[in-house]
Structure formats: C-alpha cells, structure tokens
Structure prediction request, 309 residues.
Amino acid sequence: MNKVIITGAAGFVGAAVVKECLSKGIFVYAVDIVENPSSRLELSNKNLVYRKLDIFNKSDFLNYFKDKKIDTIFHFAWIGSAGPLRTDINCQINNAKMSVELLKSAKDIGCKKFVCAGSIMEFEALEVVYAQNSKPQESFIYGIGKQLAHSLCKIISNKIDIELVWAYITNTFGVGEASPRLINTTIKKCIYKEPLQFTSGVQNYDFIYIDDVAHAFYLLGLHGINNKAYVIGSGNAGPLRRFLEELVYICYKEAKPIFGDIPFTGVNLDISVFSTHEIEKDCGFKPKVSFKEGIKKTHKWILEQEQKQ
Prediction:
C-alpha cells in the first residue's frame, strides 16, 4: 500500500487506523465531516491530508480523488453506530446504500481494494431474524444494516471487479473512546462505586484493544484476500461474565457484581463464530494487548477524563 483513503477518519477506529498507516509510511487521505479533527488526528504529519467531505456526495468525492492514484480504501464512515440512530431503519439502510456507492466510486478512481468495517452483530442479526418464534429487538437494526451492506457490496464488487475485504469487528475498546458502550459504562460505574448489575453473562463475547484493531486493518489492507471476511478479535472469546469479573477486579476490587438481575434479550453466538483463524492464517495477525492490560489503560484514561470535568 502506498496511498489510502480512510473514511470516518475522525472516529474512534478510523483515527486509530490512520495512525497505524502513518506509522508504516503510508500516505493517508483522511475523510470525515467534522471541521477540526485535531483531537484525534496528527494534522501536521506530512503524509496526512485531511479532507472534510460528505461521502454521500458522490460527485465531490470523484472530483477530488480522481487523479490521486489511491490503491486502497478503508471504509469506517457509518452514521448511527451508537446512540438513538443505531435503531433507525432509514439511517441504517442509507448507510448500506452509501457503502455500495462508495465501492463504485472506488472503482471509478482506479482503487484496487476496498476494506470495509463490518460487525460481529451481523451474525447475531441473522440468527435472531431467521430463528423460529424469535422476537428480535430494535437493537438488531444496526447489525442488519451492516449485513445488508456486506451482502450488497460483495455482489457489486464482483460485478465491477474490485477487491472486497470485509472485517467483522467483535467489541473494540480502549483509550480515546467516549461512547456509552459496555466497557466504558462499567468502568465509570466502578469509578463512582455504583451498583454493578448485569445479565447472567453466559453469552459468548470477545473484546479487543483499539491498537490491535488498527493493526489488524493494516494487515487486511496488505494481505486480505478478495471475497473473504475476517473476524477481528482477541482469539480468546468466552462467556461475558469472565470479562466483566476481570474488569471489576481491576477497577473496583472490593465490588461484588451481581449477575442475572438484568434479562438477556440477545443471541448467544456459538464460540466458533469468534474464531480468528482466517486473519491469523492469511495475514499473520496476533493481538499484542491483553484484555487485562487494555482495561488498565482504559481505566486510567477514563479516570483522567472524569477528573477534568
């Protein structure tokens, strides 16, 4: 890889992939809709160009990148990956359509490979929708949007002859993320010594630190095989309770978490779904940051952020 475009570059994962690519000497065009991404991106880096651009505007994208000789696009831009828009049907369908149009634009500018961020929730959504007598919740709409994007992009990529590499991200956490997801919320409850109530925690989960996610995407850009999808995870998936108990022990040792008070309305995926065999085999990927080390880093960062408020 010589020149890449990274969409959603001011987001948590996108910014980490920008940093990883820059560290490898790759020229990066970082694309997002925010005015000033300096809190996440090193704008002074000579190998980085930030472009405020709405990728829903196809003509602007084509006009700017048509002569830039881009070889790979990493696509992270996705409206409603957290918050209320996560359950907005129109928003998630539009995200899928936008991904397909961006794929076509990638071909139009001569790009050879399109690496797209999917989600482990694609598996959850499909399982719950097709299971007999199931009652899917609105929380699955995000996963359905990702799965729709995946299905459409795979069909179109083969029609227009551009390489598509898909990545199922398990659960990313780490320094720099401010969303109210499980790890962040639980760490904050530990900081403020609030009650720790969870589901029974028997459902299979996996968590992977942000730096390892960024490196995984870099490797997929280099070695990911066309028409293949890869799970980005720690390779050490297991019951959610195991992760939560370790987190609480690190952040609030005296606490007594309660498991089973909150009903579980999701899907318990088979442990085999979390296998990282393919990305290990094709790309040589191996995570470097353990869950324990990642939680310590994240806890320290969140504590610092809370003290500033």
Q: What stands out?
A: The chain has a mean pLDDT of 96.
